[in-house]
Write a structure and sequence with these properties.
It is a single chain. The protein is an all-alpha fold. The protein has one domain. The chain has eleven helices and no strands. Helix 1 packs antiparallel against helix 8, helix 3 runs antiparallel to helix 9 and helix 8 runs parallel beside helix 11. The longest helix is centred in the N-terminal third of the chain and has 36 residues. The two termini are 39 Å apart.
Length: 232
């Protein structure tokens, strides 16, 4: 079941890109890349999305390290099932969990500062500015990114988590590239309809995480290996 993770990451990115169009669309539509040659426009959008993917990969490294620790303790499968059940609970009882789950005040202030920085970079039309804007946007809270991060813990390794999230970011690129280049086709009404797919996507991810926890076995490194004598 572990071998399907790369395909799952890309698939999640492709499907989540519809959510990205709905939620992150206003930022992509505001990118200052609609002047100059078509090549320059495409390059600017590519660099912006590369920045997002870099941030996703960095978060994946952190979560993958956590997954490696959970695998070493022999409890990764239980953590996977717990995260999957929380996702499913959020789909069926969003108002209940919404009342209980709140971002800490320090994180709210951090996000506010990130948004202010993004406003500054939106005024720049150079490629370094596009890269930094994408990296900052990748750090903005997003339910679909959280879903992918929760799934990346299944890799059980530091670099596996980073690779998972990098592939997720690549999967989101086709729709985001189209949005950044042909923005006229993505009306507010279309983005609203696309956002309605979010509960279904979260439910699918939750079911997969629960199934992965039930069906996949990891070596329990917290127990002494067979054949090794422990001196006391």
């Amino acid at each position: 079941m572990i071998t399907v993770l790369p395909y799952l990451a890309i698939s999640m990115g492709l499907v989540s890109s519809f959510h990205c169009v709905g939620m992150c669309g206003p930022i992509a539509l505001a990118l200052p890349v609609h002047e100059g040659t078509r090549t320059r426009q495409i390059t600017g959008v590519l660099v912006y999305n590369a920045g997002r993917t870099l941030t996703y990969a960095a978060f994946g490294v952190i979560i993958g390290t956590l997954g490696a620790s959970l695998a070493w303790l022999g409890i990764l499968r239980y953590a996977s099932m717990a995260v999957g059940m929380v996702m499913l609970a959020y789909v069926f009882w969003p108002s209940v969990l919404g009342q209980q789950l709140h971002m800490p005040l320090f994180w709210q202030k951090t996000i506010h500062r990130l948004r202010q920085k993004m406003g500054l970079y939106l005024k720049r039309a150079d490629l370094p500015g596009m890269l930094l804007l994408g990296m900052l946007n990748g750090a903005i809270p997003c339910g679909m990114v959280y879903m992918a991060l929760a799934s990346s813990v299944a890799t059980g390794s530091t670099w596996g988590g980073g690779a998972f999230m990098a592939l997720f970011g690549l999967g989101t690129m086709p729709a985001m590239l189209a949005l950044g280049i042909v923005k006229q086709q993505f009306t507010p009404a279309l983005r609203t309809r696309i956002r309605k797919l979010t509960p279904l996507l979260v439910a699918i991810a939750g079911i997969w995480l629960v199934a992965r926890g039930v069906m996949t076995s990891y070596p329990d490194h917290s127990k002494p290996a067979a054949g090794i004598t422990i001196c006391r």
